[in-house]
Amino acid sequence: MKTSLFFFFFFCCSLSLLFCFHLPRVSSSAGVDRLKLPPRGWNSYDSFCWTISEDDFLTSAKVVAKYLKSHGYEYVVVDYLWYRRLVPGAYVESLGFDVIDQWGRMVPAPDRWPSAKSGKGFTEVAKEVHSLGLKFGIHVMRGLSRQAFDANTPILDITTGRAYKESGREWRAQDIGIKERSCAWMPHGFMSVNTSLPAGRAFLSSLYHQYAEWGVDFIKHDCVFGADFNLEEITYVSRVLKKLNRPILYSLSPGTSVTPTMAKELKGLANMYRVTADDWDSWGDVASHFDVARDFAKAEMVPGEGLLGNSWPDLDMLPLGWLTDQGVNRGPHRQCNLTLDEQRTQMTLWSMARSPLMFGGDVRKIDMTTYKLITNPTLLEINDYSSNNMEFPYVTGKILGPTMSHLTRQSRISMLNRGSDHHHARGVGLTSCKDSNANGWSVESLDQYHEQICWREEGEQLNQEPLCLYKRKPLLASTNDHVLYGQDSRQLFTSDDGVKSCLDASPRHKITSREWKKQPSFSTCKGDANQMWKLSSNATLRSSYSGLCVRVKQVKGNGHSALDANRSVTTNLSLNL
């Protein structure tokens, strides 16, 4: 991830402050009603996978209480498989290593959670977390475990304290489990429960009443959303939680294939719901969140109506700092693979999207850089209190002034001021390279030293001056980029042959909407991947970074050139004109 992109996102924050929302100055300290805000906390998954112990968890909770609680991080959550014994042969997909009670309900594995002995479950852990001023959360799976199904355990009737009976017989796990609806990503682990049966509903009631008795404040319900969407189970669990005598925040996962239309079916049922697949510490994972964040903002679902409060699209945890790997029997052992700029971009996007902020790194080894990033007061305030956050639709620019050479001035006029018609301008946008409207670029020579590429549409009058960009040979990229741009056909393009800067949507100061319409911003051409373009044989100008092509079209205006940013911000508006 390049610095220019990071600055662009921070500019978007500044722009949002000025254009898109009002931001009251309210602290995220204790006393704020965080039930109305995006949830914030720490989750064990990114640093421990499933192997975390009671000692590691409570040590982490103490760190959160001391250093992060004052910044609104109030939940500490044990992620999945807390009921699995950590013994040889046990791993994510293994079967037969889980601890269940006589009613087929998962209970903490005593080899990892010693306070759970004698049937106490998470009661003692929750008490310790609450004594720190924090809230305690757990991860649970859909319906019924395969282990309980195979054992055909009886079902607890919470109204009598005995086995559930109906129609003169005792009902058991194999009466309610639906093997054909197993969890897609853990098919040997869990299956759906038939909620149309009173016995199925009785089993789910016994689960969530037990969690409440333990003192749980946050439930992450997995394998019920996205590609595993199970609206029946979500609806019934939500009904059970709503009737409890204590509030429990209800979170849904996973987010694979989630759309705003699907999420709208959750109205009033949950408090947060994943909208992407698992996010790990790769730029590809981070980049995949931009379009999703845009779509949910456009659908006006940030926030939405939730269970006894608001609901929030969840971009997943923040895998920053000291981490483990996905699906391993190992705790934290490596640093985050994202560059610092990529980490800043991720935290900025999550904040602007008003996603729940669940830090995933090992808080016991948190470094100062990571700490300052996840507690950045401006980003946290945006996450808490901003509104109407949308992808910014356009940026504009104008001629900088008659202080350059004749060639420079001419090229500026060619780009920004189309002829004598001041009611229309050339709009420069990004589109699919398969779009026939992107075919219109060709090379033209200025003299024996200079070359440019120009845009001419079919049928355009020959006397109409084309929009032209200068070709500029890029410098060799740094060794960190692993690409020597100067040795291939990719090029930088500037608005003239003299300046060493490229048009960028990243001004270094906050400006008003009126100023923005008048003042473009230029940044140094660094040869970053997002500044590289290739002129293809089919007359398209393709971005090496986004894979999209430049299209020029007429737009209404006052003589200024408009950069159409209706595409996702991942395309980066540093069109180097």
Characterization of this structure:
With 577 residues, the chain is an alpha/beta fold. It is 26% helix and 20% strand. The chain contains 16 helices and 30 strands. A 9-stranded mixed β-sheet has the order 14-15-13-12-11-3-2-1-18. A 4-stranded mixed β-sheet has the order 19-30-20-29. A 4-stranded antiparallel β-sheet has the order 21-22-23-24. Helix 4 (123-131) links the parallel strand 2 and strand 3. It is elongated. It starts with a helix and ends in a 13-residue tail after the last strand. The relative contact order is 0.13. Mean pLDDT is 79; it is low at 1-22, 24-31, 396-424, 474-489, 503-522 and 557-577. This is Alpha-galactosidase. Keywords: Disulfide bond, Glycosidase, Hydrolase, Signal.
